[in-house]
Request: fold
Amino acid sequence: MPVTYAVANQKGGVAKTTTVHALGAALAEQGRRVLLVDLDPQGCLTFSLGLDPNALDKSLHDVFVHRVPATEVLLKVGEVHVLPASIDLAGAEVHLLTRPGREYALSRALDPIKSDYDVVLIDCPPSLGVLTINGLTAADEILVPLQCETLSHRGVGQLLETIEDVKSYTNPALKVRGVVATMFDSRTRLGREVLDDVRTRYGVTVLEPPVPKSVRVAEAPGRGRSVLEHAARSSSAEAYRQLAASLEVAVA
Reply:
């Protein structure tokens, strides 16, 4: 059975898109069939894969609004498939608000194709709106990227409350797999203090290893590549490989 992960944190700039792309690339390296879903109207994942969100014939917007089958929107980039996004997806969010069963739009779109993959990774937008609710409703487990800096974890409690609401109303089997520590600076105590606080305050697992802060990670999206392709032997790439291997317990 495929495993679907929603990668979510309503705080922007915590490396959600980088994490989705890098984990997808790492799982593909390990022989997994991977589908990436860009649920963010900004289309950052789509852009990071080397696609132009403004030049797409069809996007996830068409799936939600015009009921186009996901198979007609799927694109193959390297060893992964992607359901891409464009700015039109912002309009789809407004459209979904008027539709009965709006929380299940993504689940319904994925159902006919999900069995073709081992892992589905959903890049949720930096908000707790209807698109993110769709991502959480479609997911089996949640990964929470967290920047290892002061105050960065303040939104985690709000996200966990939203997750409890989703479990109550649309997806009772949803689980939090854990926090992915990003932009980690091992030279300071601050990162470890933030992660220890997250563990004790919210009782969530912090997945190992943390992903080191690196200019290589920042460079990769502009070149349409994951950090595994851009800097294959970097410490950040290796961290994502190890994180992907830890997820293999679930997808094996």
Summary: The chain is about 40% helix and 15% strand. The longest strand covers residues 175-182.
